Amino acid sequence: MANIQNFETRSNLPVNSPRVNFVQAVAFLAPAALGALATLLTLNPGGAIVGVLLGLLLAQSPKIARQWERAVVLRLGKFVGLRGPGLFWIIPFVDNISTWIDQRVITTAFAAEETLTSDTVPVNVDAVLFWVVYDPEKAALEVQNYPAAVSWAAQTALRDIIGRTSLSDLLRGRERIEEELQKLIDERSNPWGVTVQSVEMRDVIIPAALQDAMSREAQAAREKAARVILAQAEVEIAAQFDKASESYVNNPTAMHLRAMNMLYEGLKEKGALMIVPSSAVETMGMGGFIGAAALRQQKLTGGDETPE
Length: 308
Prior knowledge:
Elements: H1 2-11, E1 12-13, H2 22-42, H3 46-59, E2 62-65, E3 69-75, E4 78-83, E5 86-89, E6 95-102, E7 106-116, E8 122-133, H4 136-141, H5 146-163, H6 167-172, H7 174-189, E9 194-205, H8 208-248, H9 252-267, H10 278-284, H11 287-300
Antiparallel strand pairs: 1-6, 2-5, 3-4, 3-6, 7-8, 8-9
């Protein structure tokens, strides 16, 4: 309620708020000066008294509305029209200004706390409403306090939409929800002379325990996707090996060259250890090559002992 009260103070100014202007000062000083002059000439204090009273009366007549304001004028309690912007005059003690209407774009923050979604998840939602008074007459005559009415209409509409929306839709479909919320608030506030320009959802807060569960779920989904990608890579590698085996099956020389290259790649690093099946040594004639490679490896590592 604190936000609503602050908003009412700046947009719906009371009638008795100070709005003294230059024209009012002139309207008061002119009769007062003439009365004082008459008192000096006639030596009768009645002239000054009459001048001051007349000045006070005339000072109630001129009013000035700012460019963005409209004044709602009542004559003996009956609406007679809107005045402003600029200078206008009223009849003292007969006319009165009931409301000053601000026609600029106004922002109102509203929230829905601990509201259940359609899948029974409590959420806190903060939003901002941008609205403007397009018909000052309706705003003054059709509703008692239009700023508070707009704020409460926005809050109830937000709770209504949250109750009809699941948590996943609330988190992913903000634009659609904002459009639906704007339409709903606009339908409720149009009879009051108010139109909604836009609604922006600032934040959606869910319980900490649910946030942790959603985080674990997202992590598990990413791990699953990584394993699926790895399995797909293994399938593609196996397919390539199968295709390579077709090239080697009828070409033993190419197979020997490939095996020698693999041994070379494995033994060229210092301290590397290569384990080769004995069947491969016998079938591919790699005994002499392995012995030479071992001797070369011993020299690279700086060993002086003769292998047994």
